């Protein structure tokens, strides 16, 4: 059976994500203009700089307020700050004029910083697969304000061998 466009471009985003060398998270993003692929990117250290496989992840710890069994609790979270996020790399390597009216397919729901940058990038639609609950609420509100279509591809299944297990 022929793949629909959503599946087609999300499959490519997952293929791209396998290039990432951060063992904590593999994220891929693609830029699509009128069904044409204009760019691909994944999360990684700047070119020529030791990456997570060579130098290890650069861990930042932060506390997050979570509701657990109806009670507020501070939960310690770790994330890797060595990498430039896939969405940010996508913006660094594509042209502003090309982006006007385009769609971004990204394997993971963008974090707040990436969402903020995408909102100012000319992109009119963002399609993601894996949810990222931490920033979800404020990102969705911002996209509504901005009039950007923000779509969760809920029933989607990534291609075999493109998904790594991530430690959080
Ligand atoms: Zn890392
Ligand atoms: Zn991000």
UniProtKB/TrEMBL annotation:
**Pfam families, sorted:** dCMP_cyt_deam_1
Q: Where is the active site?
A: 87 (proton donor)
Q: Does the keyword Hydrolase apply?
A: yes
Q: Boundaries of each CMP/dCMP-type deaminase domain copy?
A: 4-150
Q: Which residues of the sequence carry a binding annotation for Zn(2+)?
A: 85, 111, 114
GO terms under cellular component: cytoplasm
Query: PROSITE patterns, alphabetically?
Result: CYT_DCMP_DEAMINASES_1, CYT_DCMP_DEAMINASES_2
Q: Which InterPro entries match?
A: APOBEC/CMP_deaminase_Zn-bd, CMP_dCMP_dom, Cytidine_deaminase-like, dCMP_deaminase, dCMP_deaminase-rel, Deoxycytidylate_deaminase_dom
A GO biological process this protein is involved in? pyrimidine nucleotide metabolic process
Q: Which cofactor does it need?
A: Zn(2+)
Q: Which UniProt keywords apply?
A: Hydrolase, Metal-binding, Zinc
State the signal peptide span: none
Classification via Gene3D superfamilies: Cytidine Deaminase, domain 2 (3.40.140.10)
Q: Which family does it belong to?
A: Belongs to the cytidine and deoxycytidylate deaminase family.
Listed PANTHER family: DEOXYCYTIDYLATE DEAMINASE, DEOXYCYTIDYLATE DEAMINASE-RELATED
Name the UniProt record assigns to this protein: CMP deaminase
